[in-house]
Design a protein that fits this description.
The chain is mainly alpha-helical. 42% of the residues lie in helices and 4% in strands. Bound molecules: heme C (HEC) (3 copies).
Length: 432
């Protein structure tokens, strides 16, 4: 018995030593800050595009402050982590980082000093990028971004979760390190889409559900998740659309922010389109559409023949039976003047029987849009939807939501809508 205990003890010691080795990363020495780095302009241009595709500026810029100067607060649920200063300032930014140090941060989640970075920084996706693409982003940040001295605040993650070397355990459990490997059975376009979606654009960071430790559940990739009081819908065959997404619809939506039969890109999806994917070459966005349509596995058919689309057009604005029902009355008087269609569904008049916000698993997105409207730089550029935060009570908004879900979309009602309206009202403000 003693022997077994001793040998188990020995094994544990070996495992602990191995983990120690795994968890240890040395410092990578500074570059000479007096030397101005020189990069080919084509490489810098590619880096600018990739930085947009990775939404780097979103998490590394404080609203209204200098680009990439850091301190954007990210609420992780465990505490707030501040995006780092990615400007080439030598003291508070990445001015002293060599390309090797930058590559290690993106592909292994370790900073220049050798400390583990928290996964609020989606290195678990950036690890899929090629070294050449990482180099392009480095070239862009080092040569086009203005250095700004701005000390980044410490995170508010409580002890012991804030111990950085413990992050090695998280990595061991949840991260598949290594550059994306093309699937030889698929087309080049499909592989390009997969490379962007799984790597730099990290779509799964919002669309894949996470476990209690915050790791993405790989077996449930793209099955939909909750993010900042919004629902990121499923991008699998579980997607709730009545009109199946085609590759063309997807790339159109990801480039313009609107899809005729699905809706507009708002909330966390707004900047994904408008600060990110719009800046990519058309061919890349087309590739993302091809890859996602394959994941969604929906059959192709003529949307105009869809019975729900036909019923919706027949309802139009002429429904005069609204006095029977409070939800319907409020909808007809507050919403239908804009949200009606006659011969066909117009993109700037989202049809609320068909719109994803009415069809997904929870009412969060519908409530968000009614409370806070759609600002002009979300959804269709330059087009707004008014907010109803100050015009309608929680109970009235719940009545509209229940009417749209039950009578228009003809789906099972959501539970507890009024309480949810109250919660989202409290947790949000309007950006108008
Ligand atoms: C979802 C938010 C988010 C996105 C998107 C994001 N980052 Fe970050 N990044 C962070 C956070 C938060 C940290 C700080 C992590 C920590 O303190 O452990 C960080 C840290 C870093 C670091 C380490 C810097 C240092 O001083 O230690 C680098 C380098 C970096 N990010 C580069 C990038 C690049 C390049 C992109 C785009 C391709 C990007 N990030 C996109 C949130 C993000
Ligand atoms: C003055 C016209 C107007 C009124 C009134 C209006 N909307 Fe909208 N609504 C719009 C426009 C325009 C858009 C598309 C906005 C964009 O893309 O910028 C929109 C978008 C939406 C969306 C789409 C969100 C998505 O994710 O696709 C929903 C849901 C919605 N409105 C619900 C409502 C409800 C419910 C009411 C009544 C309480 C209402 N709207 C009243 C004009 C209006
Ligand atoms: C920061 C979080 C976030 C990231 C990153 C993100 N999404 Fe989204 N996405 C959302 C949210 C939230 C919604 C719902 C809001 C809406 O409908 O506008 C959404 C909606 C969508 C929809 C509409 C689905 C439907 O059925 O109506 C598609 C398609 C989509 N995202 C694709 C993508 C792709 C592709 C990527 C990566 C290139 C991506 N998303 C990255 C949060 C995100």
């Amino acid at each position: 018995m003693k022997k077994i205990i001793a040998s188990v003890g020995g094994l544990a010691a070996v495992a602990a030593a191995a983990f120690g080795l795994y968890a240890y990363h040395g410092e990578i020495g500074p570059r000479d800050a007096r030397e101005k780095p020189a990069f080919d302009s084509a490489v810098v241009a590619k880096g600018r595009e990739l930085a947009a595709a990775g939404f780097c500026a979103e998490c590394h810029t404080q609203p209204g402050q200098a680009p990439y100067a850091g301190n954007y607060p990210l609420d992780t649920g465990f505490g707030i982590i501040y995006g780092s200063n990615l400007t080439p300032d030598p003291e508070t930014g990445i001015g002293l980082w060599t390309e090797a140090a930058f590559n290690r941060a993106l592909k292994q989640g370790v900073d220049r000093k050798g400390r583990n970075l928290f996964p609020a920084f989606p290195y678990d996706h950036f690890t899929k990028m090629t070294d050449e693409d990482v180099r392009a982003v480095y070239a862009y940040l080092m040569s086009e971004v203005k250095p700004v001295r701005n000390q980044v605040k410490d995170s508010t993650i409580p002890f012991p979760l804030n111990i950085r070397w413990l992050q090695s355990g998280w990595k061991l459990l949840f991260v598949d390190f290594g550059t994306y490997q093309p699937d030889k059975g698929k087309s080049d376009l499909w592989n390009r889409g997969a490379y962007l979606v799984e790597g730099v654009s990290h779509c799964g960071a919002c669309h894949t559900p996470r476990n209690l430790l915050g790791g993405e559940e790989k077996s449930r990739q793209f099955e939909g998740a909750v993010i900042d009081k919004w629902i990121a819908p499923a991008l699998t065959s579980a997607n709730a659309s009545v009109v199946p997404w085609t590759a063309k619809d997807l790339s159109g939506y990801l480039k313009s922010g609107v899809s005729q039969y699905h809706g507009v890109s708002v909330g966390p999806m707004g900047p994904v389109v408008h600060a990110g994917l719009r800046k990519l070459p058309d061919r890349d966005v087309e590739a993302i559409g091809v890859y996602l349509a394959d994941k969604l596995k929906t059959p192709d058919f003529d949307p105009a023949k869809n019975p729900l689309v036909q019923a919706s057009l027949a309802t139009g604005r002429t429904d005069r039976t609204y006095r029977d029902d409070e939800g319907k009355r409020l909808y007809v008087t507050a919403c239908a003047s804009c949200h009606y269609n006659v011969k066909e569904v117009l993109p700037a008049r989202p049809d609320l029987a068909i719109n994803s916000a009415t069809r997904i698993s929870a009412p969060d997105n519908l409530i968000q849009v009614i409370l806070n409207g759609v600002v002009s730089d979300d959804g269709i550029q330059g087009v707004v939807m008014p907010r109803f935060r100050d015009a309608l009570s929680d109970q009235e908004i719940a009545a509209i939501v229940n009417y749209l879900r039950g009578q228009r979309a003809q789906l099972k009602p959501w539970d507890d809508v009024e309480r949810k309206v109250g919660e989202i009202r409290k947790a949000t403000t309007t950006r108008h």
